[in-house]
Amino acid sequence: MADISGAGDGLVTTTPTPVLRLDNIRKSFGSTQVLRGISFDIKPHEVVALLGPSGSGKSTLMKCVNLLEQVDDGQIWLGDTDITDPRANQDKIRARVGVVFQQFNLFPHMTVLRNVTLAAIKVHHWNRDRAETRALELLDRIGMRAKANSYPDQLSGGQQQRVAIARALMTDPELLLLDEITSALDPMLVGEVLSMVAELKSQGTTILMATHEMSFAHDAADRIVLLRRGVIAENGTPQQVMDESEDPETREFFAHFRH
């Protein structure tokens, strides 16, 4: 629920419910603690970049949010829904979260339009007319409508990733998870995907993105969450974390990407 409180002068202030809230998330694999008490939230329309060196826990945390891994302890809230509750309806939760991975995962034997509509029809039981109307709107939005009847092998890597983003947006999700979406792309194609993410940000999409694109994170994110050895080392604006941090390890981490 949103927090509503009355001030002494009779004014009522409302704090919106976070789109995503992580409360003391812990995850181990065997004796290795990968996540050691992660807590942060994401407000509506906020873009949060999840950064950190290899082994920091980024990928595991993204998998926990996407229900691909179960947490050992703690809670993850999507709006007012505790998605770590085993009684939660996972199909309904997944309809509220769009996910794009570094691998496009498009079906090679299906057209772009069929790839974008498949889950909406098969999993969420939309009728075909509704799904195709929505898909064509999204493809138009990302400049790919002319490719609706093309097959994945007829597209560049950047175009395939844009189709994957359109597919993730089909159900108008409350949260969009972007997991290293440029890692598998030729460097020449990274820009077109990042420009699309910037466009989504301008349209008010709430995004949690794990990325190695530091300059993009600096320019596009409202907030940086920096993981280190399974804990949050920094949580603040890009300027606070990337430019002004006094922590030696943080400064060394970002200095590596500036050379």
From TrEMBL:
Q: How does it sit in the membrane?
A: Peripheral membrane protein
Q: Which InterPro entries match?
A: AAA+_ATPase (IPR003593), ABC_ATPase_HisP-typ (IPR030679), ABC_transporter-like_ATP-bd (IPR003439), ABC_transporter-like_CS (IPR017871), MetN_ABC_transporter-like (IPR050086), P-loop_NTPase (IPR027417)
Task: Tell me the organism's taxonomic lineage.
Answer: Bacteria, Bacillati, Actinomycetota, Actinomycetes, Bifidobacteriales
Give Gene Ontology CC terms.
Answer: plasma membrane
Q: Does the keyword Mitochondrion apply?
A: no
Into which family does the record put it?
Answer: Belongs to the ABC transporter superfamily.
**What protein name is recorded for this chain?**
ATP-binding cassette domain-containing protein
Compartments annotated for it: namely:
Cell membrane
Q: Where is the ABC transporter domain?
A: 20-254
| SMART domains referenced in this protein's UniProt entry, alphabetically | AAA
- Which species is this record about? Bifidobacterium aerophilum
Instruction: List keywords of the entry alphabetically.
Output: Amino-acid transport, ATP-binding, Cell membrane, Membrane, Nucleotide-binding, Transport
**A Gene Ontology molecular function term of the record:** ATP binding
